[in-house]
Amino acid sequence: MEMKNAFTLLVADSNPYVRSFLQRELAGEGYQVRVAGTSKEIFNCFRSGCPPDLLVMDLDMPVKIGLEVLRRLYNLVPRIPVVVYTHHMEYDHHADAQGVDIFIEKNGNPIPLKNAIADVLHSHHTHCIE
Amino acid sequence: MRWKGLGSLKSRVFLNIFLMMALTLVMGATIIWYGSQFSKMVDDLVDEDIAALQAARGLQTALANHKGFATYYFLDGDPKWLEQLRAQRRNFRKCLKEAYTLDPKLELKRLLSQIENHYQNYIQSKDTVIALYKSGRREIGEKQHWEVRSQFFELNDLCQNYEERIHQNILETRRVIHKNFHRVSAIALSLIVTALVLGILLGIMLVTQVLAPIRRLTKEAATFDDSVPEGNEVSALSRRMRGLMEDMDRTRNELQQSKELLMNSEKMALVGKLATEVAHSIRNPMTSINMRLFSLARSLDLNKTQSEDFDVVSEEMRRLDNIVRNFLEFSRPHKLQKQRFDICDVINMTLELLSYRLKLHAVTVKWASNNDLPMIEADPELLKEVFVNLLVNACEAMENGGEIEIAAEEGGVKNLGRAVIVRVMDNGPGMSEEVQARVLEPFETTKADGTGLGLFIVVRIVEEHGGMLNVISAEGEGTTFVITLPAVEEK
Question: Which domains does chain B have, with CATH numbers?
C-alpha cells in the first residue's frame, strides 16, 4: 500500500460518471487519483507543480481527439507511462500511439485496467531503478 | 476543302443541279428558236424562191414556145398556127402574173417590169410582121421578122437574167442557213461541254462529300462490328446507326440504373456514417452503466426476485454491447490482407478453434481435406471469421446436436471462371423460403439473443473477395451454405 500511495494517476475521460467511477475504483487500490475531462485539463495537470506518474485516458476526448493529445503530450513529457482505456482498439498500431504502454478495451469490468496499471507502473519503476 | 467557301453541301449540290437545269433549258430554248428560224427560212425558200425559180423557168419555156409559129404561118398560111401562138402568149402572161403574185423583191420586180415592157414591144413587133404576112408584103415582113428575132433574144436574156437572180437568192438563203446552223452547233457544243463539266463537278462533289464519308463511316462501323456485311454503304450505315441508337438507349438505361444505384449507395453510406456515430455515442454511456452494474454486483445483497431483475438488466446490457460492438466492427473500414493459401488450412484452423464449442453443442463434423484444390488469394483472418460464423450458426440452429458436413471442391463458375466451392451442410431444422429470403440481410435474426449481423458480415467478406454466398435450404431438411471464391489462375 505504501508503494502504491507513492503514485499519482491522472484519469482522463469525457464522461464524468466514468471518471468518478474510475477515480473511486483506483483510489480503492491506494493510488492518488486526479481526473481530467478535456485535453486542456490534461495539459494543465502536467504543467502543474506535481505531474502524475501515469495517464489513463480514453481516445474519445473533446476539444482535441485523443491521438493528437498523445502526440503533444509525448513532446511535453516523453517518458510518461500511458494506459489507453478505450473502445477504439483499432488505433493500437497508430503512429501517434507508439509510446502507449498498453491498450485496454473499455467495458464494465475495471479489473483488467487495474492489472494493467499495476504492470505498467511496475515495469517503469524497475526500469528506472536499473 | 476547296468547296468550303461555297456554303453547305446541300446548297452546293442544289446550286449545281440548278445550273445544270438552267443550261438544259437554255440549250433547249436556243435549239427550238433556231429550229423555228430554220424552218421559216426553209418555208420562205420553198414558198418564194423555188416558186419564183419555177416561174422564171416557166417564163423561159413559154417564151421558147413562141418560136416558129409565125414562120409556119408564113410557109403554109394556116391560121391554126396563129391560134397556137395566141395560146402561148396567154401562157406567158399567166407565168408573168404568177411571178408578180410571189411578191418579189424590188430588184426582181424591176426585172419583171422590164421583161413585161420588152414582151409588150416584142408582141407588137411580131403582130406587125404577121399583119405584113397577111397583107402579102412578104419581103417587108421577112425583113421585120429578123428584127423581131433579135428582140426575142433580148427578152430571152432578160428572162435568163431573172432566173439567175433568183438562183443567187437561193444560194444566199442557203448560206444564211449554214451560218445559223454553225452558230447553233457552236452554242449547243459549248452548252454540252458546260453541262458535262457541271455533271463531273456534281459527281466529284457527291463522291468526295457524300459517298466517301459514308464509305468511311461504314468501314469504321465494320471495325466495331463484324456483322456489318459488304455491299450498299448507305444501308449498312443505316443498319449500323440503328445498332448505335439501340446501344445508346441501352447505355442510357444502364447509366440511369447505375445513377440510381449510386444515389442509393451514397444514401446508404450516409446512413451508415450516421449509424456509426450513433453507435459510438451509445457505447460510452453503456460502458458507464456496465461499470456501475459491476460495482453494484459486488456489494448488493438482493432477494431472489431482485437478483433475477438485476441479472436480466446485466444480460440485456451485454447484448446491447454485443450489437453495438458487432455493428462497429462491421462498419469499420478495413483493408484486405491478401495471401495465397489453401482454403483447407483455414477450415482446419477454424475447426480447431471451435472444437470446444462443437463438443458443447454435441455437433460432429464430417470433413475431408481435399489436397487437389487450387490456391486462393484472400485474407485468412477474414475467411476464418466466415467459417466461425457459419459453424456457430449451424451449431445454434441444431439445438439438440447434429452433424455438420464440410466439402470443398474445384469448379468452373460463370463470371468467376475457375473457383473453389465450399459447402457447409447441417442437418438442422432448415429454413422456410421466407426466412431464406431475409437471412442474408442485416439485423435479421431468428435467435432471441442474436445480433442479426453474423451472416451479413459473412456475405460482405465473401463478396469483398470477389466471391458469392448462396443458401440452399428447406424446412426439416437442413441448410447448406455454398461459398464460391475465385481461384488463383495458374500461369
Answer: 4-209 (1.20.120.1730), 242-333 (1.10.287), 337-486 (3.30.565.10)
